[in-house]
Amino acid sequence: MPKIAPAAAAAPVASPAPPSANYLKSLAKDAPSGLVVFLVALPLCLGISLASGAPLLSGIITGIVGGVLVSWLSGSQLSVSGPAAGLTAIMVSAISTLGTFEAVLAATVVAGLVQLALGFLKAGIIGMYFPSSVIKGMLAAIGLILILKQIPHFLGADTDYFEDMSFLQFNGQNTFSAIAAAGEAISWGSALIGVISLLVLMAWESKPVRSNAALKLVPGALIVVVLSILLNLLLSSLAPELQVRPEHLVKLPQISSFGDLTRELRLPDWSALTRGSTYVVAFTIAIVASIETLLSVEAVDKLDPHKRHTPQNRELKAQGIGNLVSGLLGGLPLTAVIVRSSANINAGGQTKMSAFIHGLLLLGSLLFLSSVLNLIPLSALAAVLLMVGFKLTKPALFRTQWRLGWDQFLPFFVTVVAILFTDLLKGVGVGLAVGIFYILKANLESAYYFHSEPTRDSRVLHLKLSEHVSFLNKASLVTTFERITPGTKLILDGTDSEVIDYDVLEAIENFRLTAAERDIELEIRGIRQVEALGH
């Protein structure tokens, strides 16, 4: 009887998607989480549209496609797809190069086809080769950037688009000069609502609220949004000079009929396909969107409390179809987005239903609720993102990486600093270079050998790790784990290993957590570090 499924039949996921019955079972957690993600995503969709020089509606369309369509095509249970700040500079350049937004829509459709091809060519394996320290540095950097970037909106002193994740902004300022300028132009009504919103969110995280079964079902972001609208209406009556100014409120396009919607939609200009520059733009969008997606899903898997593994090639295919549909409907290019995904996880999301619900809410808001949503102060939404940012970059994360040693801390810290002062892709590239430096110092010999245990029980397999196992061996090891069939006993032997990279230890620990669910009996020998990971 075979112990390892043949390569052609091997499933690329370590943990299968839960059956539909589980989606209904987790709805009590997914519905509130979907609402939180919607509240975070709405201004970001609008802001990225503005930053890209595209129609406001295009960002909403992208968010709807990401939530309603890509959530079900993706193998990830918790990632959320939509327009990404990392593509804004590319979009500005693309519109300038091709002349019209409609021509860029045609390029986006082509980019979706390129991503589909990358998925079928199994190019997603590259996502397995980002070191854990770099991914954690990326998460911490995004948390810091969220905090720094939301301060001007929190104070009601920034009128540009809502999300600009790069250090150098399009308005000529940088992250720190924007904060300094905000300190001199505070809108006290916005600031008051922001402070009250933040205090409410902090109270909602306290033990008395979290231990209350009824209160726990209500997301703090919903309380903050409703309260902020009421506070602003109260200010308009009692202290009009403190009322939040229109430019500091959510701005959703007013659509009251199907005719309004069709008039707002933009369609691709297919004549652009006769120009070579269109394909240059398409390949640029496809490659950058794919890298951002792979980085995001790898980060989401690390944040997932259930340690589920996202199949990267399936993710590329899902993103490809999403970009194809988004381009056809007049939307921006989309990626898996870590900010919204982090908000989803922090709000208690369990399955892809939360991302789907967020997409439905975006669609419903566009059709029915724009007049109500346009009353929400941006400072209240900034408070929500401040809490998300803090959870991503807690001091405990820095202390943990420091205790792991220089080979983990330095790539982590360099990634944080590089992203903070450049942008996501450049910062990850710098961090990756530092991580590779440490890897190249190590011995890259074969990670393990695999054989049947010489016993009467043919179900027993022995996987013996070599003297040094680096993160470059992670993909091979995870693939081997995935091919082990149910009913097998696996002896994972690290008694001869002097160094096992932290990324590999994480992969082993994730496999240990799911082995019983897959009917695999796991015996670990000589790998005491796994027990110390604290999962």
Automatic annotation (TrEMBL):
Ranges of residues in domain SLC26A/SulP transporter = 27-409
Which terms in the GO cellular component ontology are assigned? Answer: membrane
Sorted UniProt keywords: Membrane, Transmembrane, Transmembrane helix
Protein's cellular compartments: Membrane
What is the membrane topology listed in the Swiss-Prot or TrEMBL record? Multi-pass membrane protein
The source's superkingdom equals Bacteria
Spell out the Pfam families in the cross-references.
Sulfate_transp
Chain ranges passing through the membrane: 32-51, 56-74, 94-121, 133-155, 175-201, 213-235, 279-300, 321-343, 355-388, 409-440
Q: Which InterPro entries match?
A: SLC26A/SulP_dom (IPR011547), SLC26A/SulP_fam (IPR001902)
One GO BP annotation is: transmembrane transport
PANTHER family annotated for this entry?
SULFATE TRANSPORTER
Q: What is this protein called?
A: SulP family inorganic anion transporter
Which taxonomic lineage does the organism of this UniProt entry have?
Bacteria, Pseudomonadati, Bacteroidota, Cytophagia, Cytophagales
